[in-house]
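Q: Can I see a sequence and its folded structure?
A: Here is a first one.
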Amino acid sequence: MESVKPKILLCEDDTNLGMVLKNYLELNDYDVILERDGRLGLAAFQREKFDICLLDVMMPNMDGFTLGEEIRDVNPDVPLFFLSAKTMKDDIIQGYKLGADDYITKPFDSEVLLHKIKAILKRNEEMHREEVNAEFDLGNYHFNPRLRELTIAGKVQVLSPKENELLKMLSEYKNDLLSREIALKKIWGSDTYFNGRSMDVYIAKLRKYLKEDPKIEIVNIHGNGFRLVVSE
């Protein structure tokens, strides 16, 4: 079976550079969507799923930094590379503050960019594989996110996809604070009021599933988020 090519969002308003990069990356087995301004780039990101985003900083309608912020609001985990002729220290620092995985100054070597892309995608693939295979012992419960199963004393509760993702995030942050904003953006896509109310409903469901072990509690940290507290 033919493997799926990693998908790249390339936002570059320089027509020649954009086409050269697109063609080069496609020759190296990437699926590339090229947009020539930030607003079109955001529309493409909202429409499709990408493995990595390459964003020119200076673009019409919406600059690369603003686009990067918008992308981070939708998906906090997708890798971001900024491409820029701006070499001032403050610009580079701003890029990294926005969560960039790399800030690449023009002119650059396309082959070096290719190897940077390969490295970041390999890292993410390995991290995802570890996350997918992770299982959790929570007091007397055993939680298998891959199967969406929460088990205690031989009884199995099959979780819905959102219940599963929320319990998985709480388990990863066990005994620590899981921010409402982080959970909402990752699971619901945005931290709107209505999504927040929806998350509260799912928290109540998880509390019900976990009530058979008194050592486990999901604590509401008012205005900040939740803690999955597992007492020894």
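Q: Show me another, different protein.
A: A second, unrelated one:
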Amino acid sequence: MQNGNPILKTVRAALEREPHINLHRWPVHLDLTDDSVLVMEGDVESIAAKKRALELAAAVADVRGVIDRLHVALAEHKADGEILDALETALFDARDLKNCSLRVLKKGETVTVQEILDDDASGDILAAVKDGVVTLDGWVISLSHKRLAGVLAWWVPGCRDVVDALEVLPPEQDNDDEVSDALSLVLEMDPMIPHPEQIRVHTHDYVVTLEGLVATQAEKDRAEQDAWCLFAVDQVINQLAVGR
């Protein structure tokens, strides 16, 4: 890293001020290409830390782009095959993805798990895992489908990162209501959120605010994590109250 570079100094200062990021425990390596593209590499504590780091870096003046090589640190390592098997089950069992064809990449070969041939098909998803990083390719019929598949990937134990490259066909205009609707769906599906109806979701400029009541701190943290897992969410404000 070019220690004296003013752009890198500004980025590092922004990261040090962010509450979700702990550079002392999880140092992030920063480098700058000749055309002022920032390379960020290393393990971070959470999805929130990863997303905030990328957002803060991209907002720094004179940074022309960000190359994301940040991964979420794991408490327990799992083999890629084990991650892929769990992901395959999660995608196959998801009610809202029932009409999607599903394929997985195993040992360099594409294996068809489910194929939907009729005109009612709502997607064709190809899932792969390498070094704990899940990649989702193919297409789905809506942004909600894309976001749901991405969250299911993040939920799989051993997942270090998700590259959600699913294309939405036909193209759909994204907006705050779509984000809120997708998160409400995810909270309803999450077995760790027993009473999702008590959580209110508001989104403004891709910043999600959670309000309402949950029974435990673990549920509060989990609801926030679900929000961070959503594609395109930039910030989460967790105002959930803990009580009974």
